[in-house]
Amino acid sequence: MNYDILVVGGGIAGMESALILGDMGYKVLLVEKEASIGGKMILLSKVFPTLDCASCISTPKMAATINHPGITVLTYSQIREISRMDDGRFIVRLKKEATFVDFAACTGCGECELACTVAISDPFNYDLVASRSAHILYPQAVPKKAIIERPGSSPCSFTCPAGVKAHGYVSLVRSGKYEEAFHLHMEDAPLPGTLARACYAPCEDSCTRSDLEGAVSIRAIKRFMVDRYYKDHPEPEYGPPEKFFDKRIAIVGSGPAGLSAAYHLGKRGYPITIFEGAPQPGGMLRYGIPAYRLPDDIVDRDIKNITALGVEIKTKTRITSMKALKNEGFDAVFLAVGTNRTWKMKVPGEDLNGVMECMEFLTEANTGSIKDLSGKTVVVVGGGNSAIDPARMAVRMGAKSVVIMYRRSRNEMPAHDWEVKAALDEGIELQVLKTPKSFIGENGQLSKIEVLSMQLGEPDESGRRRPIPKKGSEFTLPVDLVILAIGLRPCTESFKDELEENRDETIKVNEETLETSMPSVFAGGDAVTGASMIVNAIGQGKRAAFYIHRYLQGESLDGITFDSRLPAVDKKEVIGRSSSISRREPIIMRELPPDERKQDFKEVECCISEEEARSGANRCLDCGVCSECNECIKACPADAINFTMRSEEQTHEISSVIVSTGFKLFDAHLKTSYGYGRYPNVVTAMQMDRILSPTRPYNAVLRPSDGKMPDNIAFVLCTGSRDHTLNNPLCSRVCCMYSIKQAQLTMGASPLADITIYYIDIRAFGKGYEEFYQQAKGMGTFFVKGRVSEIEQLDNSNLMLHYEDIESGEGPQTTEHDMVVLSVGLLPNIEALSLFKDNQLEADHYAYVKEVEEDINPGKTSIDGVFVAGTASAPRDIPDSILHAGSAAAQAAAYIERNRRSA
Amino acid sequence: MTVEIKRDLVEVMRDERVIRDSIINLLRNGPRTVIEIAETLKHPPHEVMIWVATMWRYGAIVETGKPDEEGYYKYQLNQ
Ligand SMILES: Cc1cc2nc3c(=O)[nH]c(=O)nc-3n(C[C@H](O)[C@H](O)[C@H](O)COP(=O)(O)OP(=O)(O)OC[C@H]3O[C@@H](n4cnc5c(N)ncnc54)[C@H](O)[C@@H]3O)c2cc1C
Ligand code: SF4
Ligand code: SF4
User: Fold this and answer.
1) How far is the C-alpha of B52 from the C-alpha of A698, rounded, in Å?
2) What is the DSSP letter of B29?
3) Which chain B positions have a beta carbon within 8 Å of A687's beta carbon?
4) How many distinct structural domains can be found in chain B?
5) Residue A892: in which H helix or E strand, if any?
6) CA dist list (Å): A728 to A149, A824, A833, A872, B73
């Protein structure tokens, strides 16, 4: 777009320039980085010396600006760079941040803010009170629209392969909204009971808090929320969809991938049949994972979440042909047959009776075909998680001794460390750097293993050190049962003539859409990825459902992205948001003691308590700020929340620029002797203006330490101004007058309060200012001439001021007050200087934007065609800022006209 | 009681999501000042002040009448 003028900054100066130029007929683009125009003036209580209400005089200007036909306002937008084009005009590149709220629909009702579960500090109340991730900047914001602070995905939610919003349900549990937490989980993954017990929780590995004293116990929190929900709701609260599509879908395999696909497609309204070869549904969940980790009743309850949608599960039905299914009239197939075979070791004696595959053993043990191993010696060969489960099962079945034999060292074991530890606690022996050379039997029955010792060589392609046999190290080990757990193999042998496969027998698919080589057949889960984890399979089922739906609706699958999560926020940046983070120990799920749990298949882990769940959830650092708990979506009556919104880059051509980027406030922490940031009752003048304003953070003028109405307040002038030690020799021009204003307003609110102003000299230079000063004196404000050297906090949270009373000549003095206001100075906003390419905008000696002809051409900068308005070039009060903005506007108009005439 | 700000304010503000329920439970037994809430819940009063102000802002609680002689308001649940 082309504009005549770009105004950068929508404070009172920027608005004034824009309005004047708009009224003259110029096309103005006003860019403001905050989500509202109005600058700092709108946050003030009243203005000196008239004591007019700041909002009452500011809001009409804000409304006039936003509604002006000649002014385009872009809020929540950052200038990237302004550069000059060959024809002398400027080009501006800017980024319009995503608000995640559709402004056209938002009515500014604030319901989202009330519902939001994430508390943030409120910068517009200068940290006196909390706000929410979803918020309206302040009541008079223009535009009065909500925005959602969402700089990126939280690492936990970003990591979850199933897209479960871990941060969301953690945040809901923290807020005591347990059912909502359960429902949020169900939006993405239908097997929460299973995941709460058997998920390897990659979210916890990526949790920012794991870089501190330990990850948020996300899985334990999930366990609490699911167990509570299942106790209250033994049956799902929903039934089948009212209407079904006339397209039928077959799903082969009822493991987590198949169940997840069935759930997501079932919710969309497809009639679904799951074909399962085993007698009961659940795949690995039922036959692979032992009941002491995942009880059958939990698997059953989880599966009800799917069957409640009308999904039919045909068990004991082994499918061997995709074509046959298509011939039966299914419009699409999802193949999710998993990996429940084991690779052979290829050593002699493997076929002996007494040598079992891991899945064969687990299935027989889980279904009760093998019940008792009393007195037996059992050796499990392998070092992954699939070796730990059969070993721990064998212990529970009474085996005399159980050994896990692994060919590398413990460090290289792929099993999780906590699983290995649990096995060792239960008395399982770990024999590392050993491998079977042969299995020896008598009459076809296994009796011994010939074992070979190994040593570690150079790392192989997996990065782990390669095991090398030690010559002559063979020995024999008497054994009754060997369980081979050296890697799981896909169950895809029936389909190899119909579908393309990879060398490891997994099915070849398009990784994005999960389409196989046969049209209308999709595949996912372990059969595609190789042995992985439950949550991966659930994610694959969800992904397949997304693309199968598109396929059946005749929509294109090309160029469509299933996973549109925002990139994860940087963990270092998250930790850097706080000056300190208190140590809070992770919540640990208690386990039954080893001696007790070895006796039977009782669940080993115990659910945490409600109190533990909430305090555990409260360790969350709200990394992505918004937790994606979706409460705002539910609360918004206008359906305005839109999480698919993304920030937008824009480019505009401009004839002239006005810089009205305002000022920064002195950071009172830097004046360490005044105790700001340590003593709650030492506040800044900006905080005091908020406390005095009609939209204040408290119900009255109260002090922050304990909510008492202060009755003896001190104002300390020139904090951070006229102070060479702090590198700011300038007078801020407004502090004397705004402090006198605040003194008068405080007296109005608490007529009996004592007010003392500590000053160097009072600068009452404007029209009516001296009278305003005298009026404050007349009202009883004490004025003490002298710099405060130190502030000390007393036992009652009052403050002792150390100062010199210059006029009385009595030397160093001390006085007690119950609240102190630091009249902080104005500083240059140096952001203005980097707006232009190559930092061409010159600064003056104090780092304000330089006015090159300050005396005769106020507003003219070092760049031809660029003008400065308001406090961007010097400290000014509101009337002076407005006057200066008028001058900048006139200069910009003259510049444009001059160029037009000469063109 | 003398108080110093020890914890980062962002963390204090986050705690409101959990502690608000304890405050609500306490106020079910009648109105309380910030100091009284702080004493019962054993939290520093300046932190309680932030939580009370946030709850007041979002309409969960309101002040009762005028402050007491020492200048403290009592807060009650917003019916
Ligand atoms: C505690 C206090 C009390 C005061 N009380 C009074 C009073 O009673 N009466 C009085 O006359 N004056 C008072 N003042 C002074 C008054 O606040 C200023 O005179 C006035 O706000 C200046 O307006 P401005 O537009 O120049 O700057 P600002 O109000 O600072 O506005 C600048 C705007 O530019 C935006 N911005 C900054 N950088 C960029 C960028 N790169 N891109 C886009 N946007 C950007 C900012 O977000 C802001 O909205 C007080 C000041 C303080 C600190
Ligand atoms: S999704 Fe939840 S955390 Fe995010 S803005 Fe909405 S209510 Fe707040
Ligand atoms: S701190 Fe919270 S939001 Fe951040 S990764 Fe951990 S659980 Fe997720």
Assistant:
1) 9
2) T
3) none
4) 1
5) helix A878-902
6) 34, 12, 18, 16, 40
- Whether B3 is covered by a domain: the verdict is no
* A149-169 confidence digits (pLDDT tens): 999 999 999 999 999 999 999
With tokens 């502090």, the residue in question is: A735
* CB-CB contact of A26 with A743 (8 Å): no
pLDDT per position as a tens digit, A383-438: 998 899 999 999 999 999 999 999 999 999 999 998 999 999 999 999 999 999 99
State the pTM of this model: 0.93
Cα A170 to Cα A168: distance, rounded to the nearest angstrom = 5
Cα A548 to middle of ligand 2, angstroms: 30
Question: What CATH number did the domain enclosing B50 receive?
Answer: 1.10.10.10
B46 belongs to a structural domain: yes
**Interchain CB contacts (distance < 8 Å): A and B:** 120
Structure tokens at A685: 């003048």
Per the domain annotation, does B1 fall within a domain? no
User: CA-to-CA distance for A547 and A322, rounded, in angstroms?
Assistant: 18
User: What is the per-residue pLDDT across B1-52, written as a single tens digit (0 to 9) for each?
Assistant: 567 888 999 999 999 999 999 999 999 999 999 999 999 999 999 999 999 9
Of the candidates B50, B59, B39, B62, the residue with the CA atom closest to the CA atom of residue B13: B50
Low-confidence spans in chain A with pLDDT less than 70: none
Q: What residues are in contact with ligand 2 under a 6 Å CB criterion?
A: A 115-118, 133-134, 148, 171, 626-632
Residue of A nearest to B11 (CA): A581
Interfacial residues of B (vs A; Cβ cutoff 8 Å):
1-5, 7-11, 13-18, 21, 33-35, 38, 45-46, 49-50, 52-54, 56-59, 62-63, 67, 70-73
